[in-house]
Design a protein that fits this description.
The chain is of the alpha+beta class and 175 residues long. It has helices spanning 15-31, 86-101, 123-134, 139-143, 151-157; strands spanning 62-67, 108-109, 112-119. It has one domain. It is globular.
């Protein structure tokens, strides 16, 4: 982060910043109970499931499947899926988590609890969508901890304006 009063170079803006900007715009709509529109063209090898649906994002991810005591291994799954519409949002979350579910049941495996870590430029979008729709009182959502500290200032310093005034989100209804 530059010192106070200094500006960011345009080259400091990266793919993760772009994903965060899109996430902020989508989060504003979801928190207000609106179904967000696609903000950019998303190329996918298959079309949305219905004409009134759109993809919000696509990109690579690594889903680490961390299991309790054992060999310390994890399962890597690459790919990304995101859809809109009443069923699309739930299917999106299910697609990402479902890849790692495999033989587990409610976060348990034969060896014990499982933790999943999603590594992606779009991880915040998946979290915010899930939390606003299914766990609107999630501590990270309410505290704003889902967005990197100082990122809204970074966004403003690059002249990319977002409608998100604060990373602290509360859902006013389901989209």
């Amino acid at each position: 982060m530059p010192a106070a009063g200094k500006s960011y170079a345009v080259s400091d803006w990266n793919a993760h910043d772009t994903a965060l900007w899109h996430t902020c715009e989508i989060a504003v709509d979801l928190a207000a109970g609106r179904v967000p529109q696609a903000l950019r063209e998303v190329l996918a090898p298959f079309p949305p499931p219905a004409p009134d649906r759109a993809f919000w994002a696509s990109g690579t991810f690594e889903l680490m499947d961390l299991r309790a005591a054992g060999d310390g291994s994890y399962m890597r799954n690459d790919g990304f899926f995101f859809a809109t519409g009443p069923l699309g949002l739930a299917l999106t979350a299910a697609a990402a988590v479902g890849k790692a579910a495999g033989n587990s049941f409610q976060g348990q495996s034969e060896a014990g609890p499982i933790s999943w870590i999603l590594v992606s430029d779009w991880a915040e979008l998946l979290f915010v969508t899930w939390a606003l729709l299914f766990h609107p009182r999630h501590p990270q959502l309410l505290s704003g901890a889902w967005l990197p500290p100082g990122w809204l200032d970074r966004c403003a310093a690059h002249a990319y304006r977002t409608r998100l005034a604060s990373p602290r989100l509360e859902s006013s209804g389901r989209a």
